[in-house]
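hey so u asked for the seq, here:
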Amino acid sequence: MRRTLIFGLFLGILSVHPLRATNPDDIDFRLGPVKDSYSYQIGEPIEFELLYSSESQKKYQGSWTTPRPELQAVTLQISPTEGVVDLRVLRQSLAFAGSILSSIGYLSSEPYKQKLEITDWYRFQKPGRYSLTVTSNAVWRVKSANEGGGKEPVTLSSNVAEFEILPADPSWESQEISDASHGSGSPVTRLL
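ran it, structure tokens below
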């Protein structure tokens, strides 16, 4: 009897799908790397790109602001979380100040692209394979006059993108420090 109950619970857990928003059929929301490689050094900038498009003309609008952790229009989910520092948790007590530039526009068949720097959200402290998904609240459906006008929020979920954080490489780190000291490389602060 006990084995049957445990087996039934196991099957029940396997059949539960993760709670995830379903994108409207006429919106394409994708996530992909900016560079051709899916491997990064610890401390290296990790850039991905969000692409929003729709074949439905003038049905959806978006608020286009560079994705930042403090704005919360775009949310990242990293898995596994072991060996990953969530920088948003560290910044919770800090105030955000500054101006935000954004624009509003309709989605079209030509993808709207936004760059996303993962290292603004997370710091990777150990090598391994990671997966990333993005949820966006930057898009809404424009309601018709018959519907009373206004806008209806749309929550979009991206595809899963996988990438690898490589073991520490002293020669890469030395080159980064050398490039930074000569003013020709990426910021050395990412290594610290």
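Residues 24-190 form one domain. The helical segments are 2-15, 87-90, 170-181.
lmk if thats what u needed
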